[in-house]
User: Fold these one by one.
Assistant:
Number 1:
Amino acid sequence: MSYQSNSKGELPHLKTSTAAPLQSRRSVSTSDRVAPDMGGAIPGQDGRRLKLSVRGLSKRYGDALALEATNLTVEEGEFLTLLGPSGSGKTTLLQMICGLVTPTSGQIIIDDIDHTKTPVHKRDIGLVFQHYALFPHLTVEENVAFPLQMRGISPRELRQKVQAALDMVQLGHLARRLPKELSGGQQQRVALARCFIYEPSIILMDEPLGALDKKLREHLQMEIRQLHQQTRATIIYVTHDQEEALALSDRICLMNQARIEQIGTPRDIYARPVSAFAADFIGTSNIFFGQVNSDQHSVRCNTLDAPILMPDHTFSNGDDVAVVVRPEQMQLNGDGANRLDGTVMDCVYAGSESRIIVKVGRDTQITVRTGLDTPSKGSRVTVSWDAAQSVVVCP
Ligand code: ADP
Ligand code: MG
């Protein structure tokens, strides 16, 4: 499609395109409909319908498994984040959902219709990547108008929608600029506006803020959150940044080595990690590895002199376990039932709080969060916590 401004600098998009609108999910034959998904992760907690269901989806490149057979459901209007270290399969899963990568096995169901074999441009999915991918020769408003032009809406409606989308990302005043005349953050806002404007069935974002500095990233996180709250779009968002995932998501899908490690609300995963990996990846954790004692109430750790009391009895004598305690659950010189004597190695000032690093047992460092009153380096302290404030998981 050729696209140039006229001599008055007016938007060429006022001439609406004759291009056929993208095929929407409604235009797929009803014979493609599949039975509703009753499995997967927490469908319809508050009665919302399923937008996406991924069933047994896997990807293999030669001998390498990029994604094990995976089941995942996403509700309409949900903000789900795929979180995990580099190489854990996040992008592979996202690209199979949008059709850029062909699955080795499995199905992709969107709005109860099997789209596993639907080409990428017919899936009605909006994409935002780390690199802005704006059309360099089009102005901001022309870039934003582009997806709607492809759908052939009236000039008046087009103008209104472009205006509203630019206002939503606070770029109305820069509508006539070219992408190269914008900062990285502004360019990514244009990419967001261009994606949200045509209300795709699902929006997929792969590390969209990865190229921006921390301050701008936090600012844009809040904008993405507000865009989601305003539009209630269904969003699947990829990041390796756990703070970003905690701040944005309704649910987090934590990935590790080509499979899903845990799915849950940020609060659930933080409070009840299912593994040492999950505890370590999300938030700061003190993790004590050891074996369950014969009393089945305590754990012996090679690096500690005293056993650690466990909160529950779900593990048996001799089981290898990891006891997870968050820094804010520990007290310095408090009266919790678990008590470890140690030496203060460092006090890290973090504005509203401090993190104290204490060496206990045989070279084990633990982190305790406290207020601004901090002990001096080298002083002897007792770190304590109650068993009920810890979680025991498989190592
Ligand atoms: P993430 O997005 O979590 O960093 P990816 O989904 O990109 O991870 O990659 C998962 C695994 O699949 C990695 O080991 C990666 O090297 C491999 N992989 C991804 N794309 C290809 C490809 N086109 N060819 C071969 N291996 C690939
Ligand atoms: Mg990736």
Number 2:
Amino acid sequence: MAFNSEIYNDLEVRTDLEGFHLEAEGHDDPWLKRPATDCCAALLMTGRRLQCWPLFRGAERRGNRNDGEGRCAEARIRLWRGLIEGRFLRHQIYFSTGAVIIQHILLTGGAGYIGSHTCVALVHAGYTPVIVDNFSNSHPAVLPRLRQITGQAIACEQGDVADAAFMTDVLRRYRVQAVMHFAGYKAVGESVAQPLKYYRNNLASMLGLLEAMTAAGCRTLVFSSSATVYGDPHAVPMTEDFPRSHTNPYGHTKLMIEDMLASLCRADPAWAVAVLRYFNPVGAHPGGLIGDDPSGIPNNLMPYISQVAVGKRPQLQVFGNDYPTVDGTGVRDYIHVLDLAEGHVAALNALLEHGQHLTVNLGTGQGHSVLQVVRAFEQASGREVPCQIMPRRAGDVAQCYADPSLARQLLGWQARRSLAEMCGDAWRWQSQNPDGYRFGAPAAVVPSRR
Ligand code: NAD
Ligand code: UDP
């Protein structure tokens, strides 16, 4: 059925004549058998957020549409004109006329590792994502996989985030409610070798995006920062008020962007910005369809171990075993990428509700050494991971793990998944897709050699 466009209350709405009925199959509840036009909802404007409390029972039972706090993100509601005014802060509202307003959450770099997992978490929380990516470090094959996982086609615009005119057009066309900015280059070593490439892409894409958001009137942003802004920390665990510094151009771009965002929020309080300092994201969606797909030799520990386990590389080089840690190897705060993705949803909810400028660590609060990760991976995969001890890697710190209590306090979020789950999910992704996204459909699971 074709969509019709009309203008309603200064918002473009689309009429979906098929959008009238609830998904009622398999339920005895007579409320669910009714046409959506007979359902209603209580609407509540709290701060900057429109909450939608569906009065038809059963909505919660549909599981992934509920954001976990009793709010149903995709309620079909009767239009109560008096109550609906101001900004719509939930993305999708169906009217009794059959009209539907869809607002999107824009993910720059959404085809990449963290963006693609956040896309899944957003859909599960009831949001509608749209991706902008130039595929400089990702592959369009992620899109059908996202569709398979979420049951929805995810809109994607190919282009450069630094192009402010292009981004303004995307923000307007998709009625973007908020942006999550993942796009950027992230390889520390490469940033040392090619600093201008990093300053150009990371800073220009942030500036282009902020200019476009200003032009389009969208001022809600979640930014991917990193624990790298703590430089070489004087103690662990690290809290957000630790002094910041940088040891490489990549880290410098994150630090400069954090400062840029702080200036913007000071200058214009209409901006709502969450700076999320990630620790070490690892793992993959448990279905094995999406995951980390580094090009060339992996820089990071977990993808390297995965490639050794699957037989693509002979052994792991362990960089240093003389650190003052539990077994001499470096200690990091590994966090499951789905926990991280859920942290983004929590940050988005907080921004839409309270509209503030916040900076939080997203980590588990637990450190694991290189050898502990190797052992956990061997356990999860049933494969041996041969190791060779090497000298320390330049620029590495001995220990780095978060104090994540501020995120718990401000966002009501905390990481839930264990190191065993991180390794198990990373292995499923690697073994089902030994060459990442490059060769079509995932292969069968590689059998254990042990
Ligand atoms: P990724 O490389 O997998 O994803 C980044 C995506 O951005 C890629 O799809 C790439 O094609 C795209 N991109 C890059 N520049 C672009 C541009 N100018 N225009 C449009 N698209 C562009 O990286 P990731 O691991 O998903 O990281 C996402 C963000 O999180 C990055 O900003 C990174 O610095 C930050 N971060 C990552 C980690 C980590 O360990 N993965 C840790 C801390 C912070
Ligand atoms: N590491 C290692 N061998 C590798 C890659 C990493 O021993 O091939 C170690 C590294 O020295 C550090 C830890 O694993 O102690 C995590 O490194 P990664 O690059 O994944 O994250 P970061 O150092 O950026 O926190």
